[in-house]
Specification:
CATH architecture: 7 Propeller
Largest sheet: 6 strands, antiparallel
Helix content: under 10%
Number of domains: 1
CATH topology: Methylamine Dehydrogenase, Chain H
Number of strands: 35
């Protein structure tokens, strides 16, 4: 059986990944080649091997990829065609097959897609309208097809760039980069409909948001070279900035953040200036997370990545981290790549693995993984 990356205990505690979680597959959305690269993950080394038949066609300018918790389906947000491609995942090979009815309509320029922890719903941040919105869909458990939830789309801020759901499926958060805030919602467990949290939107200069596996903290990557940390009110979903936030990243522009499945570590991608000859930092900052407060403490110096690292994820085994490198704007780069790292289980430090970086498609923008449960 396969399951998507994620975790967190029902009592709100943070636990290490179950020992039977081993690396499965990785998927990368390639924005300029209009396709999705699929890889098997070597469970021992973390190396990537492209799946037979990869890359798989998507819509115009695919920019985000997400996998449901059962590992049965994958979803890709296509900004150019304003829709969502849906695929079934072959549990043995990781190959993708487009589901009947795909692609499914979104609103305008969807920039992010996220599947609910229950696997019942999917959420899409639509960045191409002002104000922006978030679309909500029910997922057919048999086919993976999407049906829009009553009342969808739901209002968000301006230029919605990222959507995430807390690990218990109670709250959804959308980062709005132009209005510089985060919209917070409660999720109806039956219908998937969204209701904005009191006090939302929260004034946060944001581009990407992630929630830790305990559901206690949210982390926001800011283009102002920092990552902000917030406590989540367990009852309401409201966000409160924690002491010491924002935390420095040491990068020119911080544009993606992820939390380790154990809840002990966080990783932030820091891109360069976006132009040839001005490489900037192009690295990944690593942090330990204070389990009581959510505060971040830097783990050594940032680790080098490729040109314009733009998305980061940790596989569900907690052993490996993957970063997609977009490449400099204006350069003729036919293929981007994926930097791969092993994670020190005690310290959280990253070490690039042999063979990294691995070839992806044109201008990769998003990476996600699945796990195998044995």
């Amino acid at each position: 059986m396969l399951a998507a990356c994620g975790g967190g205990g029902g009592d709100g505690s943070t636990a290490a990944p179950p020992p039977n979680n081993v690396a499965g597959f990785a998927y990368v959305a390639n924005s300029s080649s209009d396709n999705v690269s699929a890889y098997t993950i070597d469970a021992t080394t973390g190396a990537l091997s492209e799946v037979a038949g990869s890359p798989i066609a998507a819509g115009d300018h695919p920019i985000s990829v997400s996998v449901d918790p059962s590992g049965k389906f994958a979803y890709v947000a296509n900004t150019g065609t304003s829709n969502v491609s849906a695929y079934t995942i072959n549990a043995a090979t990781g190959a993708l097959s487009e589901v009947a009815g795909s692609p499914f309509a979104a609103v305008s320029s969807p920039h992010s897609v996220q599947v609910h922890p229950s696997g019942k719903f999917a959420y899409v941040a639509n960045g191409g309208v002002t104000p922006s919105s978030v679309s909500a869909y029910t997922i057919d458990s048999g086919t993976g097809g999407l049906s829009e939830v009553a009342g969808s789309p739901f209002a968000a801020g301006i230029f919605s760039r990222s959507v995430t759901v807390d690990p218990f499926g109670k709250f959804a958060y959308v980062s709005n980069s132009t209005s510089g805030d985060v919209s917070a919602y409660t999720i109806d467990a039956t219908t998937g409909a969204l209701s904005e949290v009191a006090g939302s939107p929260f004034g946060i200069s944001s581009i990407f948001i992630a929630v830790d596996p305990s559901g206690k903290f949210a982390y926001v990557a800011n283009l102002s070279d920092s990552v902000s940390a917030y406590a989540i009110d367990a009852g309401t979903g409201a966000l409160s900035e924690i002491a010491g936030s924002p935390f420095a990243t040491g990068g020119v522009a911080s544009n993606s953040v992820t939390v380790h499945p154990s809840g002990k570590f966080a990783y932030v991608t820091n891109s360069g200036t976006g132009s040839p000859g001005f490489p900037g930092d192009n690295n990944v900052s690593s942090y330990t997370i204070n389990a009581a407060t959510g505060a971040l403490t830097r783990i050594g110096a940032p680790v080098a990545a490729g040109d314009q690292p733009i998305s980061v994820t940790v596989d569900a085994s907690g052993k490996f981290a993957y970063v997609v490198n977009f490449g400099f704007e204006g350069e003729d780069v036919p293929n981007g790549n994926v930097s791969a790292y092993t994670i020190n289980a005690m310290t959280g430090a990253l070490s690039e693995i042999a063979g990294s970086p691995f070839v992806a498609g044109g201008r990769p923008r998003s990476v996600t993984t699945t796990r195998k449960i044995q």
